[in-house]
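In the design runs reported in the main text, the only information available to the sequence generator was the tokenized backbone. The following block is the verbatim input for one such run; it is reproduced so that readers can re-run the procedure and compare outputs position by position.
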């Protein structure tokens, strides 16, 4: 009488102890990462794997991954024991190989038809794919959950340090665990978090991420702590990060006990920097410009005086405004302004004369230059 798959599967089930011991021995010999996994736990996992294989051979079907969560449970347990995901999947394949070898041997002894032997082998390799799918899903979930927990913890620490001038002992202990040194200087940085794309928030090409800013803000002796907080990335860094892709605001470097001071100044810098050129912006770079936001009466007066007469909503007015802006940036050099704007020097002179005529300037001294520069900064910030 020729045996069926169910009969051969029962014979494999009878070899449970032998299969478990053989698979465990192979796993320990091939995968060093399993050294901290107790043998009794590994044997239990292999027995579960063998029982699942027997069930599949008997029923001829493989359950949906959601119906049988052992692949995810095993993966979760091994992740907690510091076993890499690739070794978790490799260990399962090893145990399945041992079961498969036992199946082939019993199929031959029982005279199982070749077609049924092939069907049984196919089912077992499909079972391996099933486990891999479940293990990968659990690994992604665990990695995401760990990253989320780390993000929350880093955010909480940063808030505790930058919002309180007298952080408690628990905060100080957490700071030391993150590698912050209270005997050294740090600065606060702010930049915009990467925009959402395709329903997910993540850095585009060249954009800084939490991880890249953390690396760039650490100096080998001192670690940076960086986290995304809503639409911004905020960090406490040990050195100035280098970035040329987006604007980044940075406060002054101060002892960690005075980090609230760096945070306050960084926020002021950010009000200007987030509309500016890519790169790192500091109080040294922007100086008086950080005082522009919020000065509504003065801003309105200067915009009315130096901007609106040019009719900046027209093409000609916008050209004059940009010429005046660049002329001030180049320290009143007609030649450099023309080079930057790619126009003739006479065009620059013509536009500057139009500006003088429109706003009625008869003398151009230090006060007038500062007034014009302030008006431009207020206009750029939308302080109309």
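Verbatim output:
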């Amino acid at each position: 009488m020729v045996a069926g798959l169910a009969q051969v599967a029962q014979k494999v089930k009878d070899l449970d102890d032998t299969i478990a011991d053989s698979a465990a021995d192979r796993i320990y010999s091939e995968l060093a990462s399993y050294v901290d996994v107790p043998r009794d736990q590994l044997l239990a996992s292999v027995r579960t794997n063998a029982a699942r294989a027997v069930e599949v051979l008997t029923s001829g079907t493989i359950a949906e991954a959601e119906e049988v969560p052992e692949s995810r449970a095993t993966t979760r347990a091994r992740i907690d024991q510091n076993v890499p995901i690739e070794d978790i999947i490799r260990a399962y394949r090893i145990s399945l190989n041992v079961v498969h070898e036992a199946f082939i041997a019993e199929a031959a002894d029982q005279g199982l038809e070749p077609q049924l032997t092939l069907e049984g082998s196919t089912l077992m390799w499909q079972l391996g794919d099933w486990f891999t799918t479940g293990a990968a899903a659990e690994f992604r979930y665990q990695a995401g959950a760990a990253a989320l927990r780390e993000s929350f913890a880093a955010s909480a620490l940063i808030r505790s340090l930058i919002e309180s001038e007298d952080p408690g002992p628990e905060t100080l202990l957490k700071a030391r665990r993150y590698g912050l040194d209270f005997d050294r200087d740090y600065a606060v940085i702010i930049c915009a978090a990467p925009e959402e794309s395709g329903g997910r928030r993540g850095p585009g090409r060249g954009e800084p991420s939490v991880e890249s800013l953390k690396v760039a803000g650490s100096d080998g002796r001192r670690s940076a702590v960086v986290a995304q907080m809503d639409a911004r990335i905020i960090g406490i860094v040990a050195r100035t990060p280098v970035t040329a892709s987006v604007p980044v605001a940075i406060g002054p470097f101060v002892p960690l006990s005075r980090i609230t001071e760096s945070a306050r100044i960084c926020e002021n810098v950010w009000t200007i920097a987030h509309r500016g050129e890519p790169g790192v912006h500091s109080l040294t770079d922007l100086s008086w410009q950080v005082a522009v936001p919020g000065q509504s009466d003065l801003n309105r007066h200067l915009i009315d005086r130096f901007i609106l007469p040019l009719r900046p909503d027209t093409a000609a007015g916008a050209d004059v405004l940009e010429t005046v802006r660049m002329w001030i940036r180049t320290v009143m050099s007609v030649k450099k302004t023309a080079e930057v704007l790619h126009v003739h020097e006479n065009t620059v002179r013509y536009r500057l004369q139009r500006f003088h005529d429109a706003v009625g300037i008869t003398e151009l001294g230090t006060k007038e230059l500062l007034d014009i520069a302030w008006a431009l900064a207020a206009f750029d910030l939308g302080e109309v």
